[in-house]
Design brief:
By secondary structure, this protein is α+β, with helices and mostly antiparallel strands. Helices cover 19% and strands 46% of the residues.
Length: 261
């Protein structure tokens, strides 16, 4: 099968956007094939379902929500359609709302306002309590001042799925403004130590600031792939969440994958 794709790099979280018309039933198979290509180093795959008119539409490979892919998708459709406006409306998997992506150039940047988390829950493992920031489409557990441990990650993923089932889960190791995200997508059964994670950055920012008084709170979180900037604005009970930063994007690329098992 020949695929037309675009590769986006938002702070190292390499995302392949498939521009072909692909059935949802084939997302998992095709995503695994693309992610297995060593020359692309893709961490996740998104499928564009409408690139012609607003709101533009995109699904992630497991129908989860991804902040990095969402902001890159806004930039992508502006590039494909040679749009000159700076606000692009998109509909993406894992979100029930139309989202606004703000784009700019030289350097290429994209910022998206995402829905605030639904709740902050607690997960207890070995008598330790960890905050779980729950969004539509993904939930992130935050572990502070500790290095990643695969056995612990597996235990926590099982606990989250049992108590707060969602489309995807992140285990975020947060140390001195640095986030190390381990993201599991249920539909594709894939666990990736991602180079950055936009919704993970929002999860940590929201956790740090959601109980504060009225104000605007900026963070620039460091990931192994780059920096993601967040803004949390609080006005009484009205809390808004933004994340963004510099991106890089390829031109259209044609690849061939084998779809027969």
């Amino acid at each position: 099968m020949e695929l037309k794709i675009v590769i986006a790099n938002p702070a190292g979280n390499i995302t392949a956007f498939v521009l072909n018309d692909i059935k949802q039933a084939d997302y998992q198979k095709i995503a695994h094939k693309i992610m297995a290509l060593p020359n692309l180093e893709v961490e996740q795959v998104a499928f564009v379902t409408n690139s012609k008119y607003e709101p533009y539409q995109m699904n992630m490979m497991g129908l989860e929500f991804c902040g990095n892919a969402t902001r890159c998708f806004g930039y992508l459709v502006a590039k494909l359609n040679k749009l000159t406006k700076d606000i692009i409306q998109v509909e993406v998997s894992g979100s029930n709302e139309i989202l606004n992506v703000e784009i700019s150039h030289n350097p290429a940047r994209a910022t998206v306002e995402v829905s605030k988390p639904l709740s902050i829950e607690n997960i207890i493992n070995h008598q330790k309590t960890y905050p779980l920031v729950v969004f539509e489409g993904i939930a992130h557990l935050i572990i502070e001042d500790k290095e990643a441990n695969q056995k612990e990650i597996n235990e926590l993923l099982s606990l989250i799925d049992e108590n707060y089932p969602n489309d995807a889960y992140g285990i975020l190791y947060y140390n001195n403004n640095t986030i190390d995200p381990h993201v599991y997508v249920k539909a594709t059964n894939s666990l990736v130590n991602e180079s950055s994670c936009g919704s993970g950055a929002i999860a940590v920012a929201y956790y740090l600031h959601h109980l504060k008084n009225k104000g605007i709170y900026h963070n620039a979180f460091e990931f192994k792939g780059g920096v993601i900037e967040t803004i949390i604005t609080i006005n009484n009970q009205d809390i808004r969440c933004f994340m963004g930063g510099i991106i890089n994007m390829s031109n259209e690329i044609y690849i061939n994958i084998e779809t027969k098992e």
